[in-house]
Amino acid sequence: MAIKDLLTVTAPAICAVGGTLLLLLDLAIPRGSKSTTAWAAFAVILLALASVPAQWGVSTSGFAGMVAADGYSLFVDGLLAVIAALTVLLTLRYNEARGIMRGEFYPLMLFALSGMMLMGHATNLIIVFIAVELLSIPLYVLCGFARPRVDSEESALKYFLLGAFASGFLVYGIALIYGAAGTVSLTELTAALSGPKPADSALLYAGVALVLVGLGFKVAAAPFHMWTPDVYEGAPTTVTAFMASATKAAGFAAILRIFLFGLAPLMETWQAPIAVLALLSMIVGNVVALAQTNLKRMLAYSSIAHAGYVLTGVAAGGDAGASAVLFYLASYALTSLAAFAVMIALNSGEADENHSLDTYAGLGRRKPLLAFVLAVSMLSLLGIPPTAGFFGKYFLISAAIGSGLTWLAIALVITSVISAGFYLRVIMTMYMRDGKNEAPIAGNWPRAFAALTATVATLGIGILASPIVELINTGIKSIVR
Amino acid sequence: MNPINFIVALSAILFAIGVLGVLTRRNAILIFMSVELMLNAANLAFVAFARKWGELDGQMFVFFVMTVAAAEVAVGLALIVTIFRTRRSTDVDDLSQLKG
Amino acid sequence: MTMDLQIILPVLFPLVGVLVNSFFGRRLGERGSGVFASLMVALSFGASVLLLRQLSAQPHTEGAHGLASQLFPWIQVGTLSVPFGFQVDQLSILLMLIITGVGLLIHIYATGYMHNDERFPRFFVFLNLFISSMLVLVMGDSFLMMFVGWELVGLCSYLLIGFWFSEIKNSEAGRKAFVVNRIGDVAFVLGILLIFTTFGSLSYTEVFKAVEERGAEVAAAVGTITLLLFIGATGKSAQLPLMVWLPDAMAGPTPVSALIHAATMVTAGIYMMARSHVMFELAPTTQTVVGVVGGLTALVAGVIALTQWDIKKVLAYSTVSQLGFMVAACGVGAYTAAVFHLLTHAFFKALLFLGSGSVIHGIEHNPKTATHATGGHGGGHHQGIDPQDMRNMGGLKSRMKITFITYLIGGLALAGVPPLAGFWSKDEILVSASQSNSLVFWLLAVTAVLTAFYTMRQIRLVFFGEPRSREAWHTIESGPQMTIPLVILAVFSVVGGVVINWPFEAILPAHALSHWLEPVLGKLEVAHFDFGMAGIFSLLAIVAMAAAYFMYKRSYNETVKQEPLEKLGPLYALSSNKFYLDDIYRVLVVIPFHGFATVFAQVIDKNGIDAVVNGIGGAVRNASLVLREIQTGFVRSYGLVMLLGVAVLVAWFVFTR
C-alpha cells in the first residue's frame, strides 16, 4: 500500500482516521463538555473538505483499480463534507436538550461519512458493498441513539433489519455478476460488456437487478422505500437530517458510477426498469405525503418522491443525466438540511419532541427568520423559481426529454404539482394560522449559521447555477471510466 | 452438468431459505440469522465462481463479506439486546408504533 | 452595466420593500410600513417611466427587440443556454406602467383600507412581492422567465385570497383558486416543455424566429403548443371552463381584488397570447377555439352578473366577461385591440373595485353603527348586515359624493359610453370580430348590451334612491388616501381611450397604440373606426342603462323590493344560479370522487377519518389515505413489499435481456 494509493481516498481516509482518533480523544473529555468532541469532529470534516480543492484536477486510480480519485468523486466528497459540517453545527444544542450529547455520536458520524465518501470513489462493486456497510452500520447505531426512547429504538431496529436484508441482495447480486462476467471491476465490466453478450447473461442481469435493489434501498426508492418514514420519524432529528441529505447523495453517487458509467453498455436493459422505479417513487412519495400531519414524516415521504425525481435523471443516462443528478443532489441536500434545521430549532427546548404541523402555526409571526428559512426550503422542494430546486428539476426534465423519456418528464411535472398540496400547506400554516405553541426558542449561533448557510445556498444555487453546473461537468469529464 | 453449477444451485437455495426466514420469523434474532444465511449463500457463490474462473479474486471477496458481516453482527446483537432490555421482547411485530 | 441595472430596477425596488417589511415591518409600524411599501412601488413606476423614454428614443422598426438585458448567463451548459434576461419592449413597457402605476394607486388606497388590520405589514409584503413577480412575468425574455413570474403571481394570489383566513369561506376560496389554477398550470408547463423539445430553446427571440423560418414544418406541433398554452391562459385569466375560481377569489381584501384579480394578474393570459402571437397565428384551429371560448365566457359571465346581489360579485363576473372580450380579440387576431382593452379595463375596473371597497368600508366602518372600534374586515364579527349586499345599500349618492361620481365614471366607461375609455377599446374589438368571425361578434355584441344593463343596475341599487339599512343611512365618505386614487383613476378612465388609441387623423396622432406596438405585434391591419357600428352600440348602451335605471327605480326601492328580472323565469334561474357551473363541477368531479372516497373510507379506514373531499384535490388525498394504510408499521410486511419489488425487477431484467 503506497502513499499514492491512499491519496486516491484522501477525504474518506481523513474521516476514518479522524473518527478513530476522536474515539480515543473522547475518553479524555469530561462528560459535561462533549461539545468539544463536536468541534473536534467539525475540524476533521473541514480538513477533509480542504482536501477537495487541494486535489481538484486529479484523475487516477488506486488500490489496483478498486478506487478512483477524479473530479466526480471529489465533488461528492465536497458535498458530503459540507452537509456533515452543517449537521454537526445543528447537533450542538439539540443533542444536549434531548440528552444524547454523548461522545460516540461524532466518531460514528465520521465513520458513516467516510463510508458515504467512499461510495463516490468506488470503482469496484466489492468496494461499493464495503462502503454501503461502512455508512450503514454507524447509522443503525445513530438511529437508536436516543434510547431508551421507544421510537428511536424501533427506528434503529427497523433500519437495521431491513438494511441488512437489502445488503444480502446487494452482495448476492455482486456474486452473480462476478459469476457471469468474471470481474466486478467497473472498468473491466464496461470493456467486457461492450463486446458480444456473455454466455451466462441471465446470471448477469439478475445480478444487476439485485445490485439495483440494494442501492435503491439506500436512496429510498419505491418499492424499497418502506423503511424510510418509520426510520426518519423515530431517529433523532439531527440523524434524520444527516440521513436524508447525505445518505441519499452517497447512494446516488454509487448508482451513477455503476449504472451510467460502469454498466453503460447495458443501458437498454436498465433504463426502463429504473424509469418505472422513478415513476413509482414520485407517485408514492408525493401522494402519501399529502395525508401527513407530522412534518418530519411528511419530509420522509417527500424524500422518497425526490429519490424518484433523481432516478429520472439516472434513467435519462449519459453525461447530461449525470450532471442533472449531481446538481439535484446538491440542491436537495442543502434544501432539506435547511428544513431540518428549523425542525431542530423548534425541538431544542425543554418540551418533548413534537413535529406535528400544528406546532408550526404562527411561526411566521413568532420567529420570522426561522419561518423564512422553512418557507424557502419548502418552495425549493416544490421547485418554485428562483430556488435551487427549480433548476434541479429543470435539468432533470431536460435530461429526460433529451433521451426520449418525455412521459417520465410529464409525470415529474404532474407529481410536482401534487406536491404543492403539502409544501404550501406548511407555508400557509406558518403564515396564515395563529398558533398556540408559544414554547420559547432559544437562539443558538452555530445552528443559525448552518440554517442560513443552507438557505443562502438554496437561493444562491438557484440564481447562480452556472458555476455549479460547470464544476459538475468538469468533474464528470475527468471521471475514470 | 458442471459440478460448479451444483454449488451455485446450493447457494441459491440457501439464499432463498434466508429470504423466507426473514419474512416468516418474528424473533429479531432469527430474522438476523436468516440475513446472515443470505450473506453466506453469497459467499458460497463467490467461492464457486472463483473456481469457475480459476482465479482467487472471488475467494478474496469472501473475506471482505465475512468481515463486514462480523461487524454487522456486533452492532445488530447490541441493538437487539438494548431493545430487549427496555421491552422484554424481541418480537418484531411488537415494534409497530411508527406507521401510516 | 448601467443599462442592465436600469432595466432591473423596477423589479428590485418592490423586492426591497418585501425584505424590509418582512423583517422590520412591525418595528416600522403601520404608517411606516405602508408608506415604505408605496414608496418602493412609486420608485418602480418612476424607473419604468424612464425606460419608456429611452424606448421612445429608439428606432421604431419591426423586429427591434427594445431594451434587453441579459444580466448574467443563468444556465450555460453545452447547447442549453438560459440567460437570466429581461427585455423591455413596446408591449412589456405598457404592462409595466399599468402594473406599477395602478399598483401605486392601489398601495396608497390600501394604506387607508387596511387601516387597523392587525397584519398590516404582512399585507404589504405580499402586495410588494406581487408587483415584483408580475414585473418578472412581463419583463422576462423567455418562456422560462414568464413561467417564473406566472408561478410567483399565482402564489401571491393564493396567499392574498386567504388573507383573512379566519373565515372558512376565504380559505376555501383560496383552495379553489389553487386547485383550478393548478389544472391550467399543468397545461402551461407541458406547453413550455413542448416548445423546448420542438425548438430547443425557450427564448422568445429564438423561438419566434424558428417559428417564422420553419413555418408549415412545425405547424402541427405549434397547434398543440398553442392549445396547451391557451389552457394555461384559461386558468389564469378565468375563462370557461376554469372561470369558477375568480368570483370566489373576491373573498380577498378589495385592494387585492382590484390589483390582482382585475387589473393585472388575470390579464397575464392575454399578455402571453399577445407575446406569442406568432405561434397563435400559425394555428388556425386554436385561434377559432380561443375566439369562441372568449366570446362564450364573455356572454355567460355577463348574464350571471345581471342577477348578483353582492357588489363585488357583480364586478367579478364583469371582470370575467371583459377578460372574455380580450381573449376573443386575441382569437380573431386583433392583438392590438386586446392590449388596448387590457389597458383601459385596468383603469376602469380598478376604479370600480376601489369604489366598491370604499362603499363597503363606509358601511362597515361608519362611526354611528360600527360595533367595533378596531380590527380589520371580514373577521366574521359583523353582527349586523352583510356589508357587500346591494339590497342593504341605496342612497349613497349624497353621502359619498366623490365615490359616487368616480364610480359613475367607471361604470360609464365599462358600459362603453362615448367618449370614455371603454368605448374605444370595446369598439375596436367589435369591429375586428365583425370582420372575421360572426359567431364571436354576436356573442360579444349581446354581452356589450348586457354590460351596460348590469352596470346601471348596480349604480342604481347602490347610490340612488333612499338607504335601505341603518348602516347605509350613516355612511360617510372615505378618507383621502382612498378617494385620491379614485379620482386619478377616474381621470384615466375618461381620457385613457382617447389618448392611447384615438382613431382619427386629427388633433392627436391616430392609432398611437397600434403603431407603438408594431415592432412587437407586427403591422396589423388597423381596424377602421366604423361610425355606424359605434353609433348603434352607443345608443344600445344608453338605452340599456336607461332601462335598468327606470326598472330598478320603480321596482326596487325602500318600499317595493322586487327583482324585475325574476319575470324572466328560467333565464333568471340560470343567471342567478351562475349557470349551475359550480353544481356541474360538483356532479362531474366532486361527487364521483366523494363516492370513491366514502367507499374507501368505509372499507379501509375503520377509524372513520372524515372524508372531506374537495374536488380533485380530494381524490388525490384519498389515494393518499389508502396508500398510507399499506404502511402498517410491521417490518416483515415491509420486507414482503421489498421482495415483491425484487421479484418483479429480477424477472424484468432477465426476461428483457
Brief overview:
The complex is a heterotrimer of chains A (about 475), B (about 100) and C (about 650). With about 475 residues, chain A is mostly helical.
What keyword list fits this structure?
heterotrimer; A: mainly alpha; B: mainly alpha; Helix Hairpins; 3 helices; 79% helix; elongated
Across the major sheet of chain A, the strand order is 1-2
Which percent range fits the helix content of chain A?
A: over 70%
Q: How many distinct helices of chain A?
A: 20
Radius of gyration of chain A, whole Å: 21 Å
Structure, described:
The complex is a heterotrimer of chains A (481), B (100) and C (657). Chain A is built from 20 helices and two strands. Chain A has one domain (3-477). The relative contact order of chain A is 0.10. Chain A has helices at 3-7, 10-27, 35-55, 71-97, 105-121, 125-143, 150-181, 186-194, 201-218, 227-234, 237-262, 267-289, 295-316, 318-346, 363-366, 368-382, 388-402, 406-432, 445-463, 465-477, and strands at 60-62, 67-69. In chain A, a hairpin with a 4-residue loop joins β1 and β2 (67-69). Chain A has 481 residues and is mainly α. Chain B has 100 residues and is mostly helical. Helix content of chain B is 79%, strand content 0%. In chain B, α1 (3-24) packs antiparallel against α2 (28-53). The longest helix of chain B is centred in the last third of the chain and has 31 residues, at 57-87. Chain B starts with a helix and ends in a 13-residue tail after the last helix. The mean pLDDT of chain B is 90. Chain C is mainly alpha-helical and 657 residues long. Helices cover 71% and strands 3% of the residues of chain C. Chains in contact: A-B, A-C, B-C.
Topology at a glance:
The complex is a heterotrimer of chains A (481), B (100) and C (657).
Chain A: H1 3-7, H2 10-27, H3 35-55, E1 60-62, E2 67-69, H4 71-97, H5 105-121, H6 125-143, H7 150-181, H8 186-194, H9 201-218, H10 227-234, H11 237-262, H12 267-289, H13 295-316, H14 318-346, H15 363-366, H16 368-382, H17 388-402, H18 406-432, H19 445-463, H20 465-477
Antiparallel strand pairs in A: 1-2
Chain B: H1 3-24, H2 28-53, H3 57-87
Helix pairs in contact in B: 1-2, 2-3
Chain C: H1 2-57, E1 67-77, E2 80-88, H2 90-113, H3 120-139, H4 143-161, H5 168-199, H6 204-214, H7 219-236, H8 245-249, H9 254-263, H10 268-275, H11 277-281, H12 284-305, H13 311-331, H14 335-365, H15 401-415, H16 421-436, H17 438-463, H18 470-473, H19 480-501, H20 512-521, H21 531-555, H22 570-576, H23 581-603, H24 615-630, H25 635-655
Helix pairs in contact in C: 1-2, 1-3, 2-3, 2-9, 2-14, 2-19, 3-4, 4-5, 5-7, 7-10, 7-12, 9-14, 10-13, 10-14, 12-13, 12-17, 13-14, 13-16, 13-17, 14-15, 14-16, 14-19, 14-20, 15-17, 15-19, 16-17, 16-19, 17-21, 23-24
